[in-house]
Amino acid sequence: MSRSPLIARTVPTLRRAVDNLRKRKATIALVPTMGALHDGHVSLVRLARRRASRVVVSIFVNPTQFAPTEDFGAYPRTWKADLAKLAAEDVDIVWHPGAEAMYPGGFATRIVPEGPALAGLEDRFRPHFFGGVATVVGKLLTQCRPDVAIFGEKDFQQLRVVAQMARDLDLGVKVIGSRTVRERDGLAMSSRNVYLSPQQRQTATTLYRAMKESAGRIRAGEAVAAAMARGAAMIAAAGFELDYFEVRHAATLVPVTSGNDGPLRILVAAKLGTTRLIDNIAV
After folding, report:
1. From CA 79, how far away is CA 59, in angstroms rounded?
2. Domain ranges of the chain
3. For the purposes of burial, counting CB atoms within 10 Å of the CB of 277, is it exposed (0-12), middle (13-18) or buried (19 or more)?
4. Which of 41, 96, 128, 249 is labelled catalytic?
């Protein structure tokens, strides 16, 4: 029988709850989210449960990672449904702060990441994004003080940025990536999929198919540039406005020119109507 998690909305309440877990020699896993939870998030929680004895899930729609032209106000917020999902997974603590708890009056310190944050992928189109992500994740990690933190691989550049930050700032947390959860037709699960019309939803699977086909051609020995050009053409022909479709070194995100340049990752971002989708796969 599932139990209701403790809901903390202030840092002192959260700290007391975490301290109580530590007194019982618990190991703690944190799953940071922005809510609107789907099966992909549930998979993160289940991985967290396997990696630690207690699980904290944060739900905070972070305003600092949205540009003025982006969908902060419209971003889906489904608190009651989210809480029911987390209770069913026996989550121990839900950290659900308001903006005033995360960014109180006089807040004046930001984290400005470099390295994978400047890879020329998401940062090229959303230059504000990783500063907002790094600052809020840095706060979440110091507030919750977990042993491990679980992030989905769908946001692959974000995963690399957060892992680098945790190492560089000696935050004492192991950042773990969890595989992307997909619908049966291959579309990566995302809170933004609800914005797609039925016709767009069918078209959206093109991203995954194009990545798989390009990855297969690279593995078969086709030149990287030719394989990626074919995939990009497939995406554009489906009606997407393509931001990037690139193959990078999986660890460093630096550009590559050959299929022998190390472990490779194909990353894509494209708009279908007004909805921007991102995805990636290993080659």
Report:
1. 9
2. 6-178, 191-282
3. buried
4. 41
Residue 64: which residues within 8 A CB-CB, separation 6 or more? 103, 128, 131, 132, 135, 136
- The encoded tokens of residue 155 equal 């946001």
Smallest CA-to-CA distance from 88 within 27, 32, 5, 30 is with 5
Active site residue 41: yes
Query: What spatial distance separates the first Cα and last Cα of the chain, rounded to whole Å?
Result: 42
The reply to whether 191-282 shares the fold of 6-178 is no
CB contact at 8 A, 75 and 194: no
Closest C-alpha to 175, from 154, 139, 146, 142: 146
Q: What angle do CA 172, 150, 184 make, to 5 degrees?
A: 165
How many CA atoms lie less than 13 Å away from 127 in the CB half-sphere?
1
CATH level 3 topology of 6-178: Rossmann fold (3.40.50)
Secondary structure string (H, E, C) spanning 244-283: EEEEEECCCCCECCCCCCCCEEEEEEEEECCEEEEEEEEC
Structure tokens at 170: 């000696």
- Where does 191-282 sit in CATH, by number? 3.30.1300.10
For the four alpha carbons of 117, 118, 123 and 128, in that order, the dihedral sign comes to positive
Which structure tokens are listed for 150?
Answer: 């679980």
Neighbours of 112 (CB within 10 A): 9
Q: How distant is the alpha carbon of residue 195 from its chain centre?
A: 18
Contact 37, 81 (CB under 8 A): yes
- Residue 250's contacts (CB-CB under 8 Å, 6 or more residues apart) are 262, 263, 264, 265, 282
Task: Quick: pLDDT tens for 19-54.
Answer: 999 999 999 999 999 999 999 999 999 999 999 999
pLDDT tens sequence across 135-172: 999 999 999 999 999 999 999 999 999 999 999 999 99
